[in-house]
Write the structure tokens for this entry.
Amino acid sequence: MALTSGSAPLTGTVTFTSGTQVLGSAALTAGAASITPTLAIGSYQIVASYQPSNANAGASTSVAFPYSVVLATTQTTLVVAPSPGVVLTPITFTALVAGNGGTPQAASTSWSTELWLAPRL
């Protein structure tokens, strides 16, 4: 009888938590498991816990990873066209809003100006 060394591929599930909140679970594939949780603003201590699907491996838990989600910073720029405005010509106000280095998102509104003249007495 010959003794050989080696290991079977690990299978099972990894559960990601922060305190008592379960952030999600994923199957272990090629030694890794990933999730994409939606986290609210706040501080977290993320822990990954591995639960094997068979008796060939033991369960394990990572150390806590401190993680913070902060409020996005924004910058708003106003663009007015045409400038100066002309009576009875549509004027467009456009607000360009960018957050944390992202692509500006435009929101605009337009309306026509009207000239009201008071009668001479």
The mean pLDDT is 81.
